[in-house]
């Protein structure tokens, strides 16, 4: 069987709890996938920062570059200043490994309770292609006269023709491969005129090569409204890094909650390993209690399997999750481990 080098970054809070279940399911499906996963676990996150002051050292980054794919739990902890691990570890990995596509499916599985009235699984099946390396996330900006009454904080949005084009092109490819062939640009070009205009012109130019894809545009504020009032209108969405962050938490909420939302930080050119992770964070409020839902991580494992070319195994994991979700109402409260066990059992059985 083909060998895949898998880097595992459990991280903080519920990260290690949900990653353990993701690996359990991977272990259950791997034997029939034709792949052998060689795992290396990386001790990164709050504990390491407290011990050494390191977030993502160059040496570890270099090791990660030599891996085929990465599974990450979550990072961030109340004992660490906000942004230290988020920027120094998670965003550093996304930027250095050039994860310019942040893929976030928003799909309602049968039997899952949505807060939207009268909505069925046919009504919500979209995928958000979130730009992953630019926008307001670059860290460009600064602060003047900190802690004075005249303090000024700037945080710029950086958008390059190169970066916008490649993510829009990827989104067109995804849209062209889906039955509905619809792509919606979500931005705020009525206010963010420079960046919005670059996205709009690029959409038009790249779209000329995809006449089969229907294109439309929504301001992000209106898009949030339609997520709730008319989710059927969405198929593929392409959007800026920050807008994509915000709308995918909303997307998670309308399809059963953040515990179900999977994602992939993808380097489509395969110039560096891609990194799969649940959309949620380290959830300090429930960490260590066995309450976290590992389903988002397990679905991220399915995306990982697709990425490494194990489509059959990916479908098996998705089907196991879907079957488990369909019966959840009858299960009552289950722990993180119980959910992982149940899905792993379906995958192997
Ligand atoms: P969060 O996603 O950690 O938690 C938001 C709410 O959702 C909490 O009530 C939490 O208990 C719940 N929740 C999250 N995941 C769940 C799961 N699997 N099952 C059940 N409930 C779940 O977001 P937050 O509270 O805004 O952030 C907490 C920390 O995580 C912060 O340090 C933040 O920076 C970090 N964070 C990291 C990532 C990441 O690593 N990708 C993503 C988001 C936030
Ligand atoms: C996410 C998170 C991250 C983001 C943070 C923790 C940097 O919210 O993965 O959605 O904003 O991308
Ligand atoms: Mn987020």
From TrEMBL:
The keyword Metal-binding applies. Its EC number is 1.1.1.85. It comes from the Bacteria. Signal peptide: none annotated. Residues 5-343 form the Isopropylmalate dehydrogenase-like domain. Its cofactor is Mg(2+); Mn(2+). Keywords: Manganese, Metal-binding, NAD, Oxidoreductase. The keyword Transferase does not apply. SUPFAM superfamilies: Isocitrate/Isopropylmalate dehydrogenase-like. GO terms for molecular function: 3-isopropylmalate dehydrogenase activity; magnesium ion binding; NAD binding. Pfam families: Iso_dh. InterPro entries: ICDH/IPMDH (IPR050501), IsoCit/isopropylmalate_DH_CS (IPR019818), IsoPropMal-DH-like_dom (IPR024084). This is 3-isopropylmalate dehydrogenase.
């Amino acid at each position: 069987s083909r060998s895949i080098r898998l880097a595992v970054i459990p991280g903080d809070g519920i990260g290690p709890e949900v990653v353990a279940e993701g690996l359990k399911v991977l272990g259950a499906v791997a034997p029939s996938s034709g792949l052998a996963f060689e795992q290396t676990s990386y001790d990164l996150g709050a504990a390491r920062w407290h011990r050494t002051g390191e977030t993502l050292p160059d040496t570890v980054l270099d090791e990660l570059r030599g891996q085929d794919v990465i599974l990450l739990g979550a990072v961030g902890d109340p004992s660490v200043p906000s942004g230290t691990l988020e920027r120094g570890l998670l965003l550093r990995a996304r930027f250095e490994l050039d994860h310019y596509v942040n893929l976030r499916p928003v799909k309602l599985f049968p039997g899952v309770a949505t807060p939207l009235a009268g909505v069925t699984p046919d009504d919500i099946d979209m995928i958000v292609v979130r730009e992953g390396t630019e926008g307001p996330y670059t860290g460009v900006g600064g602060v003047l006269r900190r802690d004075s009454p005249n303090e000024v904080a700037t945080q710029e949005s950086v958008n390059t023709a190169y970066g916008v084009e490649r993510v829009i092109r990827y989104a067109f490819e995804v849209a062209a491969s889906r039955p509905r062939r619809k792509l919606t640009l979500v931005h705020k070009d009525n206010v963010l005129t420079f960046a919005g205009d670059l996205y709009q012109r690029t959409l038009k130019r790249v779209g000329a090569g995809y006449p089969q894809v229907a294109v439309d545009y929504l301001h992000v504020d209106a898009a949030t409204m339609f997520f709730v009032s008319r989710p059927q209108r969405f198929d593929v969405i392409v959007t800026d890094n920050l807008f994509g962050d915000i709308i995918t938490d909303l997307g998670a909420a309308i399809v059963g909650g953040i515990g179900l939302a999977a994602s992939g930080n993808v380097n489509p050119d395969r110039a560096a390993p891609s990194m799969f992770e649940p959309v949620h964070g380290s959830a300090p409020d429930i960490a260590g209690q066995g309450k976290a839902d590992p389903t988002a991580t397990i679905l991220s494992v399915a995306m990982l399997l697709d990425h490494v070319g194990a489509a059959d195994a990916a479908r098996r994991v998705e089907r196991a999750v879907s079957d488990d979700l369909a019966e959840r109402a009858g299960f009552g409260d289950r722990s993180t481990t119980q959910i992982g066990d149940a899905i792993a059992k379906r995958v192997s059985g």
